[in-house]
Design brief:
This protein is an alpha/beta fold and 328 residues long. Helices cover 31% and strands 22% of the residues. The strands form two sheets. Strands 1-4-3-2-5-6 form a six-stranded parallel sheet, with helices on both faces. It has a six-stranded antiparallel sheet with strand order 7-12-9-10-11-8. Helix 5 crosses helix 6 and helix 7 packs antiparallel against helix 8. The longest helix has 21 residues. The radius of gyration is 22 Å and the shape is elongated. The N and C termini lie close together (10 Å).
Length: 328
């Protein structure tokens, strides 16, 4: 078990939008944010909220919002979300929190002023005893609240408040950010994305029926549709957690299948040494490395020949990859 992982010793409570805060999370200290990616910077927030909660004898939680505020304000603009809410919950639990409080981001919340956000929402509605935020946290109507304003309002309201400094990789000046991770994945740079996350990036989704072409080629795949995903089209070394909890290594293609139909982007994963029926089951696919870009081949035979090479490359990459997993 890695440092910060004590999930075997604690329960984890999820408070869904519109549900009252349960007794298990009463008086919690909350790290507040969107937490897209739950990256190394977010991890420092989590460590800080756990420390603050431990000092106060309170539950340690994350307070996050659905939909993402950007999706609320610009609903027609595609947004590459690194981490779905179910994926966030997996990571938060693994990081040793007591729970997560999810609140709906809607017109009423968007119109709430900074003071009302602290006094009426954080203290009154949620019953928090303290908060932890990042250095660039803004809140309230028109983003009028700054970290300094939050600290003042929390002091007046009797809430503890910690503000966390930016976090950067040792060799870099720019802070770790969700935007940097999106850019890395869009370039196929899984190694960099995973370094910024501190673990292998993963996606969740149900296995859907496809055209069965992979089965005909000798490479049956588990197909998952990813929504508004800007991951570079190409071939990846992956590790898959099945609904049963079993793990399998594999090789995956994300793209439009240019050799055949140039269809809608689809994640197609071939699991090594597996022959079961996965249709309808939810799987988790974590990305260990990038092998090559998507290509159009002159024939199906040429594609199959390259698929064997890709599978060998994936096996080799996975055998030497030591990046942390959040799914174990």
């Amino acid at each position: 078990m890695a440092p910060g992982d004590d999930t075997a010793a604690r329960s984890f409570t999820i408070c869904r939008p519109d549900a009252p805060v349960p007794p298990a999370l009463a008086g919690a200290v909350a790290a507040i944010g969107n937490f897209d990616g739950v990256h190394l910077g977010h991890r420092v927030l989590v460590e800080s909220v756990r420390a603050a909660a431990r000092d106060a004898g309170r539950p340690a939680v994350v307070l996050t919002f659905e939909p993402h505020p950007r999706a609320y304000f610009t609903p027609d603009a595609p947004m590459f979300r690194l981490t779905s809410l179910p994926a966030k919950e997996i990571v938060f639990q693994r990081l040793g929190l007591d729970g997560v409080i999810v609140r709906r981001f809607d017109g009423a919340l968007a119109a709430t002023g900074a003071r009302a956000f602290v006094v009426d929402f954080l203290k009154g509605s949620l019953g928090l005893s303290g908060v932890v935020v990042g250095h660039d946290f803004h809140f309230g109507r028109g983003r009028e609240g700054t970290p300094a304003i939050l600290a003042d309002l929390c002091r007046e309201a009797g809430l503890s408040c910690r503000i966390v400094a930016p976090v950067a990789l040792p060799s870099e000046a720019e802070p770790v950010s969700s935007s940097a991770i999106r850019a890395a994945l869009a370039a196929g740079d899984v190694a960099r994305a995973n370094a910024l996350l501190g673990y292998r990036w993963f996606v969740l989704g149900p296995v859907r029926h496809g055209d069965k072409r992979g089965r005909q080629l000798g490479f049956p795949t588990a197909n998952v549709m990813l929504t508004d995903c800007s991951l570079a089209h190409g071939i990846y070394a992956v590790r898959v957690r099945l609904a049963s909890g079993e793990f399998r290594d594999g090789v995956a293609s994300y793209g439009r299948r240019p050799t055949f139909d140039d269809g809608a982007p689809l994640l197609e994963t071939y699991l090594f040494d597996y022959a079961g029926d996965l249709y309808g089951q939810e799987i988790a696919v974590e990305f260990a490395g990038y092998i090559r870009g998507e290509e159009r081949f002159a024939s199906a035979d040429a594609l199959v020949e390259r698929m064997h090479i890709d599978a060998d490359a994936a096996r080799s990459l996975l055998a030497r990859d030591e990046t942390r997993s959040m799914l174990d």
